[in-house]
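Lab meeting, item 3. Inverse folding demo.
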């Protein structure tokens, strides 16, 4: 009989999860060493693995006392272990102090020791002895690849990945053509004015809108525009129903196309295991749900891209950066990387400096329209994934 042991770390739940995915076999037992405050956070492991609760043991300590006293850790652990059990211990997680105590106790039970390095997708198996020349350390690549849903659920987040469509509604060629319109500044004044009216007055509507009412304005939206036909022509956009725009088409015209352009571009250049558009996530600690424009996962590393065709002011840009940073640090974990793709120019590099300071990578218009710079971005993503 074998027990897989993890020191639970709420800041990095992936280390324990990937260790179990690599070595768990039917019938194995799980042992988690955690603080009392983190006991409830272990629950997703049981649900994601479909393991009966009776096969899971949690040894908990008081965060502010027991977990920092070596002798108490040792006594508590030793009293709960059995010489008849084979233990495989993952030393990643917790504090260095607690890992040292755990390693010392389990060494007395002839355990096998591992260290999961999530950033490099590696697991090191080590023998702690006085021999440093026998090369008995073994490095294994992590073979398992997580889905986006697994990653989110492991971090205690709920999502709508299975309840609605998260794929593009139009082709890559459609999005690429509109991108080229902005890149080459081909939009006429009338078309650009119509785009602003659609964004300001109709984005988020629940009902279809006739082109005639957009031209004339309405009781709710007094401002009309005679440039809507010019906009559709320049975008080469043919509505599904003649002479009207559906809600998803208005969303597409006013920015959704850019999210789809980013989706398609990343899918082709990076080849992630999974990629999704407009994923809504929530958590008990969030004030409200958050919708993430483009989310993808590659080699167990999550990437989130906020897509903005334009940002009116530096203040608004700062809000976007702070939101992305807060989501990453508070909810999405250390194995998440955040990007902002925008068609806004950053001539003095001030926006990039603000983003870098918050740990967010900015790709402004000058980057998005330069093939070499974009290749550097994609190379960085591949390096961050460590596949």
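The presenter then showed the designed sequence:
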């Amino acid at each position: 009989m074998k027990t897989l042991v993890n020191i639970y770390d709420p800041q990095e739940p992936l280390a324990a999860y990937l260790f179990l995915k690599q070595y768990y076999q039917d019938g194995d037992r799980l042992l988690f060493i955690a603080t009392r405050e983190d006991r409830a956070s272990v629950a997703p492991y049981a649900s994601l693995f479909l393991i009966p609760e009776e096969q899971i043991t949690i040894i908990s300590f008081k965060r502010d006392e027991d977990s920092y006293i070596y002798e108490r850790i040792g006594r508590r652990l030793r009293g709960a272990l059995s010489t008849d059990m084979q233990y495989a211990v993952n030393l990643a997680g917790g504090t260095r102090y607690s890992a040292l105590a755990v390693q010392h106790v389990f060494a007395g039970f002839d355990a096998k020791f591992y260290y999961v390095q999530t950033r490099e997708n590696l697991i090191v198996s080590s023998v702690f002895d006085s021999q440093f020349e026998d090369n008995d350390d073994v490095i294994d690549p992590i073979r398992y690849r997580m889905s986006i849903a697994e990653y989110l659920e492991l971090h205690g987040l709920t999502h709508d990945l299975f309840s609605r469509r998260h794929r593009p509604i139009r082709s890559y060629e459609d999005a690429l053509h509109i991108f080229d319109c902005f890149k080459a500044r081909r939009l006429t004044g009338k078309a650009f004015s119509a785009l602003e009216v659609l964004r300001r007055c109709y984005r988020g509507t629940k009902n279809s809108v006739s082109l005639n009412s957009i031209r004339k304005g309405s009781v709710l939206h007094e401002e009309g525009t005679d440039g809507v036909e010019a906009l559709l022509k320049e975008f080469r956009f043919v509505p599904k129903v003649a002479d009207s725009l559906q809600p998803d088409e208005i969303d597409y015209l006013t920015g959704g196309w850019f999210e789809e352009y980013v989706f398609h571009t990343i899918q082709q250049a990076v080849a992630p295991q999974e990629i999704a558009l407009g994923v809504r996530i929530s958590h008990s600690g969030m004030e409200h749900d958050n919708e993430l424009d483009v989310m993808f996962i590659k080699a167990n590393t999550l990437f989130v891209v906020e897509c903005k065709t334009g940002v009116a002011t530096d203040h608004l840009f700062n809000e976007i950066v702070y939101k992305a940073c807060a989501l990453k640090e508070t909810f999405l974990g250390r194995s998440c990387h955040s990007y902002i793709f925008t068609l806004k120019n950053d001539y003095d590099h001030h926006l990039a400096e603000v983003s870098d300071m918050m740990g967010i990578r900015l790709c402004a218009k000058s980057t998005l329209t330069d093939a070499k710079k974009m290749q550097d971005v994609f190379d960085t993503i591949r390096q961050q994934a460590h596949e």
